[in-house]
Design goal:
With 565 residues, the chain is of the alpha+beta class. Helix content is 32%, strand content 20%. The relative contact order is 0.18. Bound molecules: flavin-adenine dinucleotide (FAD).
Length: 565
């Protein structure tokens, strides 16, 4: 067996790196192992937002009581001890993140995802400040890349503000685009080295800063090294078996093993076993072949309990052929696309089933419940007209003034994007009942004209309105679908990761089936059950708990090590 360290952290996403840093700062010797050849996990490909209630920054008015009232209302199955631990430790963990050099800023007016619920407010979601990738030295090249959705023309890095400016196109948006492109090309010395933008934004900024703090502390990171098994001695977890370059070996952990290997969304076998409706790992927006539930399986093998395995952080997605890799379909997020005006979503019977302006996780949940009722959702359809096509992006299909219909590859038509001169023609192409779809669209248009959506209340709450189009009146979320040609795009039940996993307590200790903490074993991030159960309280609702419970886990490991000395 390898001589070992105090703490082995498995997984190099935000949860793993945060736990490693905190444990190291509390005096423990730490090793991080990462299965793939890149560090950062899904966290590096994400928006990097964290949802931290009562953080005390900016114009934000909040309180512990309001946050708990909100969480109590929106998360039916979250356990109070974990919700309280989360709300109480959030501001402290954030302060610690700042001390590591990870700065966050709030997005003005960004609402909670159940904006009408008691205790809801705005600006609990915080987003990481940009970072200069050059500060990472060679480690810049090993950082997982951002998805094309977070880059202009799949090249120029965008921060959140720039992403929104290019999607909503307020006055002066052209300058935003011009500046982003000019900065990239004027960076001549960097251009000679790589075509990758040195500006780290969103999730790459979060992970980049954590990695930089690790380099400063000389915390060891071993890539291409995956945990395969947990080792036990006298009823306590004392190390891991790993696989690296096809070879198995063992590493000893004197204090603890912290599992942070993400969810199981990339394992079709585990999806088929646990998800409530048939799903496909190809729909997931997380890095391919990375998070396959290894920690879950290793934990189950030693008697760990689990929770919420049937849930994921849903985010509708669509697929398009890659324009750079032959014969490969890419999965694109639809975060802000299905709720633009001049569009509606229908199941395969041609009926609406949801307020299309709701947050992505709620949209996914609506797909599931409609599928359970009708058997005709998952996938469903986004239907839009030429007004939408002119103005808004749809996945990787940019508005027609940037990407005209003529410029789309011929083979995409009638496979990935469908077009009809009438709703009836479109219905025929996507094999949805013509009469039902045209009835649904006629009814929808009547509601759009009056600005009321009696069926689903689209555009009646703070969240809908915040992301609506103020130019569309009387309801910024409802625009008629009336101007030919008409289009349809298939929406899959995508996800940002699964949210069920090993059951943990408020210190992130893994619990056994009889409810007792397994000595020396901690689980954080998506390989543990979400503290919120089946709910996504706000933007950053997955990375928020990932860093807060990593912080709590490291504190507990250090305290236990101190007592055992
Ligand atoms: C496009 C997109 C945008 C998103 N935006 C946000 C956002 O703004 N805010 C938010 O809260 N959430 C967001 N999410 C979700 C969020 O990114 C994830 O929920 C979060 O990153 C999970 O963090 P983690 O550390 O648990 O897992 P990950 O970041 O996925 O890290 C897990 C790591 O473990 C490694 N690993 C897997 N198996 C093993 C093994 N056997 N041994 C060792 N290592 C292993 C993986 O390779 C990976 O590097 C977004 C997701 C996507 C896809």
């Amino acid at each position: 067996m390898d001589a070992g360290v105090d703490v082995i952290v498995c997984g190099s996403g935000a949860a793993g790196l945060f736990a490693a840093l905190r444990a190291s700062d509390l005096g423990l010797r730490v090793l991080v192992i990462e299965k793939t050849s890149r560090y950062g996990g899904t966290s590096a490909t994400s928006g990097g937002g964290v949802w931290i209630p009562n953080h005390g920054g900016g114009s934000h008015a909040d309180s512990r009581e309001a946050a708990l009232q909100y969480l109590d209302y929106v998360s039916d199955d979250g356990r109070l001890e974990k919700l309280q631990a989360y709300v109480d430790a959030g501001p402290e963990a954030l302060k610690y993140a700042n001390s590591l050099g990870v700065g966050f800023e709030s997005a003005p007016g960004f609402p909670d995802y159940y904006s009408g619920a008691p205790g809801a407010t705005t600006e609990r979601s915080l987003f990481p400040m940009e970072m200069d990738g050059a500060d990472l030295g060679e480690e810049f090249y090993r950082l997982r890349d951002a998805p094309s959705a977070f880059k202009l023309f799949n090249k120029y890095a965008l921060n959140l503000e720039q992403s929104f400016a290019l999607s909503a196109r307020p006055f002066g948006w052209q300058w935003v685009a011009a500046k982003v492109i000019a900065n990239y090309w004027m960076d001549l010395s960097w251009r000679r080295k790589t075509s990758t933008d040195r500006r780290l934004t969103q999730g790459r900024a979060l992970v980049g800063r954590l990695r930089k703090a690790m380099l400063e502390r000389r915390i060891c990171l071993r890539l291409n090294t995956g945990v395969t098994k947990l080792l036990e001695r006298k009823g306590q977890v004392c190390g891991v078996e790993v696989e690296a370059m096809g070879q198995r070996s063992q590493i000893e952990a004197h204090s603890a093993v912290a599992l942070a290997t993400g969810g199981f969304e990339q394992s079709q076998v585990l999806r088929d076993k646990y998800m409530p409706v048939p799903t496909n790992s190809a729909w997931s927006l997380t890095p391919k072949a990375a998070n396959a539930g290894d920690a879950l399986l290793a934990g189950l093998e030693i008697g760990a309990d689990t929770e919420f395995l049937e849930h994921a952080w849903w985010a509708p997605s669509m697929r398009l052929p890659s324009r750079s890799i032959p014969n490969v379909d890419e999965t694109h997020p639809m975060f802000f696309d299905y709720y633009h005006p001049h569009s509606l979503c229908v199941n395969r019977l041609g009926r609406r089933f949801v307020n299309e302006s709701c947050p992505y996780d709620q949209f996914g949940q609506a797909m599931i419940s409609d599928h359970k009722k009708t058997g005709s959702n998952v996938p469903c359809w986004l239907i839009f007209d030429s007004n939408f096509r002119k103005k808004y992006a749809c996945g990787a299909i940019l508005p027609s003034f940037v990407m005209s219909d003529d410029s789309l590859p011929l083979e995409w038509w009638d496979s990935y994007i469908f077009r009809g001169r009438s709703i009836e023609e479109l219905a025929g192409k996507i094999r949805v009942d013509r009469d039902q779809l045209s009835k649904t669209v006629t009814m929808f248009n009547e509601h759009a004209t009056s600005g009321n959506d009696p069926d689903f209340g689209r555009g009646t709450n703070g969240f809908d309105v915040h992301f609506g189009d103020p130019e569309v009146k009387p309801n910024p979320c409802l625009g008629r679908v009336s101007d030919a040609p008409f289009y349809a795009v298939q929406i899959d039940l995508g996800d940002l990761g699964t949210k069920g996993g090993l059951k943990t307590d408020r210190h992130a200790r893994v619990l056994s089936k009889d409810g007792i903490a397994i000595e020396g074993l901690y689980a954080v991030g998506n390989c543990s059950g979400s503290p919120f159960g089946n709910c996504y309280p706000g933007g950053g609702g997955t990375l928020g708990p990932a860093i807060v419970f990593s912080y709590l886990a490291a504190n507990h490991i250090a305290e236990r090590a101190r007592l055992n000395r």
